[in-house]
Design brief:
InterPro entries: Phage_HK97_gp6-like (IPR006450). This is Phage gp6-like head-tail connector protein. With 91 residues, the protein is an all-alpha fold. The protein has one domain. The radius of gyration is 13 Å and the shape is globular.
Length: 91
């Protein structure tokens, strides 16, 4: 994963290990979603460094805070904007 569990927990301000399982799942989902939006494979995405990490952390934060009512369309549109600089054109 491009963002470690401790880094994600620090970003989310989680001090205990009680939610590690959900945070790991959200990290995997966030990274996959960001790669899909950017139209990049795992290696290409990791090579983008800070932009990729910021997008993953933003996505994890959104998914964590909106577990029950996430608007995935809005999230995807926001990610398109965040990842515009690294997003591959076309398929």
């Amino acid at each position: 994963m491009i963002v470690s569990l401790p880094k994600a927990k620090e970003y989310l301000r989680i001090d205990t290990d009680a939610e590690d399982k959900i945070v790991r799942k959200l990290l995997r989902a966030a990274e996959r979603l960001c790669m899909d939006v950017a139209r990049l494979d795992e290696d290409e995405f990791k090579a983008c460094g800070a932009i990729a990490k910021t997008a993953v952390l933003y996505t994890v934060g959104y998914l964590y805070e909106h577990r029950d009512d996430a608007d995935h369309k809005k999230l995807t549109i926001t990610l398109r904007s965040l990842l515009m600089g690294i997003r591959r054109e076309g398929f």
